[in-house]
Amino acid sequence: MANHVITATATMLEEMRNHYASDITGHLPAGALFVAKRSGCTITAYRTGKVLFQGKEAEQEAAKWMKESDQKEAPVPQPPLAAASAIGSDEVGTGDYFGPVVVAAAYVAKDQMDAITAMGIKDSKLLTDEAIRRLAPSLMNMIPNQTVILSNPMYNDWQRSGMPQTKIKALLHNEAIGKLVKQLSPIEPEAIIIDQFIERDLYFRYLENETNVVRDHVYCYPKAETVHVAVAAASIIARYVFLQEMERLSKEVGMTLPKGAGAQVDQAAANLIQTHGPAILEMCAKLHFANTEKAARIAKK
Predict the structure, then answer these.
(1) Cβ distance 161 to 151 under 8 Å?
(2) pLDDT at position 77, please?
């Protein structure tokens, strides 16, 4: 059984309790605040702030909360890093049932920082889709950037092979960063900052069998968009490309595909099954999410 543990703030614990309200059970182990059972995953939140995810969907469920959690403290970056000419990278789509996984890498030089900041560039999660669509095209014209899109069929193939989502993300980040480093040559970034989804040593362990791995000046920080504006820029570009891909997929399947992994996603997937048959999900969804089983049950009603 897969286990994943994150550390949550008091505010986040309350958000989680509300999110899982319909799945909370009556039995509480010692020190627990609540226990919620979903298809493929049991979530146990403790008064210490630790949250344990257990089951075949543990990694995917925990990933929804990873970037909001107080992950293991990374060293506080020194001012020279925050002011460096740097590449930032971030990913979008790992918590969404529909749509691909997109990783973007963006390079912001020292002399561009003021202009980029003045545009209102910040973490894409703090911006509306409308704001993303307005900012991203100008941003992509201003700074060097590269994106990698992992299609749903390829994602499903990798996942069925037993590859964990953390390794999938490591491969995509390394690819996007590598493409941007090549684009920048002979300019060498002073730092490469990844929005942390895993500890740095494990990140490189996942890449040990890869031929081309970018290793120099690589840092992994939680909430890295607060460390360097290049990461915030990458998050906006990744989100923009993800939104474009969602629009393209929606046109292909003939209906608007919702984001996230909630009840409206279950219903949308059920509608697709009823209209096109279950095979349609292979090309537009991440099949190992619990939404697949839920949609199948709804489609039979």
Answers:
(1) no
(2) 47
Per-residue pLDDT tens digits for 164-217: 999 999 999 999 999 999 999 999 999 999 999 888 899 999 999 999 999 999
Q: What is the pLDDT of residues 101-121, one digit of tens each?
A: 999 999 999 988 888 887 778
Residue 201 assigned to a binding site: no
Q: pTM score, two decimals?
A: 0.75
Q: Are 272 and 152 in contact (CB under 8 A)?
A: no
Residue 107, Cα to own-chain centre: how many angstroms?
20
Three-state DSSP class for 285? Answer: strand
Long-range CB pairs of 12-21 (<8 Å, 24+ gap) are 12/65, 12/68, 12/69, 13/45, 13/49, 13/51, 15/68, 16/43, 16/45, 16/51, 16/65, 17/45
One-letter amino acid of 97:
Y
Query: Does residue 195 have a known ligand-binding role?
Result: yes
123 is in an annotated binding site: no
Please tell me the CATH code under which domain 2-70 is placed. 3.30.310.10
What's the rounded Cα separation, in Å, for the pair 249 and 286?
A: 13
CATH of 81-249, one of 3.30.420.10, 3.60.15.10, 1.10.3730.10, 3.30.1830.10: 3.30.420.10
Task: Choose between 17 and 273: higher pLDDT.
Answer: 273
Which tokens is 230 given?
Answer: 């290049």
